[in-house]
Amino acid sequence: MAREVYDYTKTVLQKVSFNAELFYKELEKAVKKLLPHEVKELKIWLREFTSNKPELYYCLAIME
Question: Taking Cα atoms as reference points, which of 20, 22, 43 lies closest to residue 31?
Answer without folding.
Answer: 43
